[in-house]
Amino acid sequence: MSRGEIKNLEYIAREIRRDVIKTARDCAEGVHIGGSLSLAEVYAVLFFSAAKLDPNKPNWADRDRIILSKGHGNVGFAAAMARRGFFPLEELENFDQLNAMLSMHVDKHRMPGVEISSGSLGHGLPIAVGAALGGKLDQAKWQVYCILGDGEMMEGSNWEALMSGAHYKLDNLTAIIDRNRYCIDGSTEEVMSLEPLADKLRDFGWQLIEVDGNDVEQLLDAFSRVHDASKPKLILANTIKGKGVSFLEGKASSHFAQFTSEDAARALAEVG
Prior knowledge:
The chain is an alpha/beta fold. The protein has helices at about 5-25, 35-40, 40-50, 75-85, 125-135, 155-165, 190, 195-205, 215-225, 260-270; strands spanning about 65-70, 145-150, 175-180, 180-185, 185, 205-210, 235-240. The protein is built from ten helices and seven strands.
């Protein structure tokens, strides 16, 4: 990609962060903010570069399937989808209100372009494996992308899905793990150690690409790498929880928060 195109994706990631901050200010109950801030670059690259999508035809048969297993990352996910054109950005103003399109966890019955409802962790990757297997059987050209949080890697269902993906040689499947090292209860390594995570994922037979998940250029390279024809691909995206907001970065307390007007103004100034 040209430098201008890379800069545009960085700009989109910054705008997604601003959308998340504004929603955390305006939503009466607060939002899951830290994990959406950590995923801003992943959302920008996936929705605006890597995935084949048509916002005007959200159910287009040849679309790539994007599955948000980490359902509580919905505020950033929704911001990315709105900016891609699936629905008006103004829908974020009603986030998690009664009968609103956008809820705290992603809901396929309300949001156009959403593949599955999620929120209870550990379900997205098994569904993604099933979708990819179905695509292979149908000889379809579309790809499946699944976004997971590292906290949900404590779920045994994900490790069963990893085995299945490798067993069926699903080279039409890419999983992305948001490795921000925090879950709702604290550091993942204190709650339930995952390390050495990269080695484990390789040992399960996936094509492992480890990157700085807050670096657009590294993500572009990871998404564009040709699949090993015998393996599914997994991007281990090392990120910072609460990325871009100094008083949230690397803190478990950023998992769910509501901003005062003063907090939001400070955060928006830092994001730029």
